[in-house]
Each structure stands twice: as structure tokens, then as C-alpha cells.
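Slide 14.
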Amino acid sequence: MAEHVRAISLKGGAGPSEAAVAHLEALLKAGTLQAIMVPRRSADGRTYAHALVTAPAGLRGADPFAPVMPASCATALSRLTKLEAPKGRVGVVMRPCEIAAAIELSKLLQVRLDNIAVIGVDCHGTMSVQDHIKMRDAGKDPKDAMGTDLKLHREACLTCDWAEPQHRDMLLGLFSEGSGHLVLAAEDERLLAGLPEAPREAVTARDAKVKEVAERRAKARAEVFHGVDTNLQGSRAFSAHFGTCIVCHNCMDQCPVCYCNECFFESQTFRYEAEKMLRWAGTKGGLDMPTDKHIFHLGRMGHMVATCVGCGMCTQACPVDINVGRVFKYVASQVQPMFDYKAGRSLKDPLPQATYLEDELEPR
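Slide 15: predicted structure.
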């Protein structure tokens, strides 16, 4: 079924965020959606967090296009739906990388998509939570800064695989804003009730922006991967890259597709007696503390790299500024094609780790 394309005019002074929120309010009032999960301003006004809203008043302070992502919405969606699907239809506002993560979690039985309306948003990229707070404290608008300085974007956003949201039930097409319209699209016309047809120039403007964003990110991705391929080969380079790791497990906790209820790396396997550690220290001439930092990253990489969507939550969560995501995303770009797989591409693609083919590692 083809999507219906509508638009909201921005010429009356309303910005894209205000126009999008007004439409979400209308969907709640009409009962088309029972609830909406959307980024909403934190209590102190300095950042955003996902909020599950059931009444229009709850959308006060919401912004589908907030330029910061403290956590992946896929994680929040898992917490909402893992035990059971909602009985009424719930709209969930998600960036492309968050949708990709939700698709992977659905295959892993950690997300139920029944009665979920995925509201995909065009994403210019996000900055770190720290940068967002600093700008707010300085009285600056982070959105304005994001538009003029690509250096503020997280690397994961600069190299994002997704130029536009896939597998959406409704699109909030921010990339059309230059035409003076916010383009919306959906197969279900009830999600677009009351909106006029989108002007051709608005759709054309968005298409051109999607193409430009895809090309820019592909170029940046190639440059970053070349750097990894050149500078991060061999055990010494790997050890140096992760050398300052404090084994806090923040990267694991914030990864949306790292989901095990009982983690091997938090088990008694990695609790050692003092005499054993002293013996290792004597054999090696010294023992790095905390122990097992490299086996932790290698083990986690082997466990989930086939489902890595490159969202960069791991890097953002690291308290000692290790670029975990750069390495994981690079390895994922090498591993996933071996299985003709792209994490987040389709609900129909079987998980590589759950599929066995006798010739799957043979040269093609």
C-alpha cells in the first residue's frame, strides 16, 4: 500500500517541532492513538528524556526533533512491551537508528510491535548530553548550533547508515522544513486526519535533502572506517584503544541491543581470589586493574556485533571517553555483509546467530 503524503504549513510562524506536537495532540484528542512516547524536556529544562504521554497536556515540553538522545527509545520501547503488547494503539516517536534497534529487539523477543505505531522522524543528528546542557546553561539554542557546526554532532550521527526512517507507520519529515512545510506520510490515513496534500515543492525539497544527507554521511563513514582500518589493527592497537577502560559496563548497559537478563561478564566467572591475581601479577610482572577489560570488549563484540545498529550509545555512555562505537560499528560493517545481513534492515531477515548454513563462511 502506498503512503499518503500530507503537509503542515510553517509559514504562520510555528516551527517544525511545534507543528509536529500540535498534530500529535490532535491524534490523542481524536483517540487515534491511546498514548504517545516522545522526547520531552527534563524537569530542569536542560535536556530531554522519553515520556509516555496519554493526554494532550502531557505533550507540553515535547520535541520529536530534540537534538540530543540521552538513551535509545528502543530500550524504552522494550521496557513498555516486553511483557505484553499494549491493548490500545501507542505511537512511538523514533529516530532511524532507534527504529533499527527496535527491529533487532523484536527478532530477539525483547520488543512487541503489536499495536505500536512507529512515528519515524527525519534526524539531522544529535549532540552529546554534556554539550546540550552546556549550551542550555549558556542561554544558547542547541538546534541553531547543530545547524551551523557539524563538529557538535556525535560521530555516530555524522556516519549514520540511515538517511531517513525506515519501517515507519508515520513520517515526520523534518528535511522538508526549507520549503516552509513539514511533510507527513502514512499508509493509514487516520494518522493524517485533517491535513492537506503536500505541495510538490515540499516533497521535492525533502527528497533532495535525504539524498544530500545520505551522501555526506557515506563519505564521513568511509573516512572514519579508513582510520580504523589503518590505525587499529593488531592486539597492541586494540589494547591501547581500550587501555583506559574502567570496566564500568556503561557501554553494555546503554547499548539498545545488548539485552541478556543474566550477563556472563557480571557473573562469578570474573570474581577472582586474591592469590590467583597475585600469581598472575607475578607471572606477567604486573596486572592491570580492573582485570579483563579487553576480554570484556572482545566478548561483547562477538556477542552482539551482528545486531549493532551504530547508534553510538556506547561511546556516549563511556565516562573515560573511549570511542567504543567507532570500533564496534567498523567491525559490524565487516561482519554483517558476510551473512548478507544488515541490522535493522528488515523484520524478515533471520538473525545470523540464529541461522546455520553449511556454506555461510565460504568465499562468494
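Speaker note: The chain has a mean pLDDT of 91.
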